[in-house]
Amino acid sequence: MPITGPTEPTYSIPRGSRRLLSRGLATVLIATVGLFAISWIFASSSVTRGTLLTMLPFASALAVASLGQTLVVMQGGIDLSVAGGFSLYVVILTKYPAGDNDRLWAALVIAFLAAIAAGSLNGLLIGRLRLNPIVATLGTNALLFGVILWYTAGIPTTTTARLHSLGDAVWWHIPAPVYFAVAATAVVTAVVKLTPVGRRFEGVGANETAAFTAGIRVQRHRTSAYVWAQLLYCLAAVLHASVVNQPTAYEGNSGGGAGYLLPTVAAVVLGGTSLLGGRGNLVATAVAALFLSQLDQFVLALGVSYATRTLVQAAALAVGVALYSINWRRAFGRFGRRPATVAPT
Amino acid sequence: MNRGRRWALLACAALFTVAMITTASSSATTSQRPSWCGPKKIKLGFTDGFGGNSWRLVTTASARDEAKKCSSVSSIDYADGQGNTQKAISDIQGMVAKGVDALVVFPDAGKAMLPALRSSYKAGVVTVPYRVTPGGQAGRDYNVFIDTPFVDAGRNWGKWIRKVLPKGGNVLMLSGPKGNSQGIEENKGLHQILDPTKKYKFIGEQPFEVTNWDPALTQKVLSAAIAKNSKIDVIVSDFGPSLVGALPEFTKSGRPIPALATSDGNVLGCFWKKQYKKNPTFKLFTVSTQNDHARLAIQWAVALASGGKKPASTHFPSLLFEDSVTGKPNKVQCRANLPGDIYLSAQLPAAKQAKLVR
Question: What DSSP designation does B240 have?
Answer without folding.
Answer: G
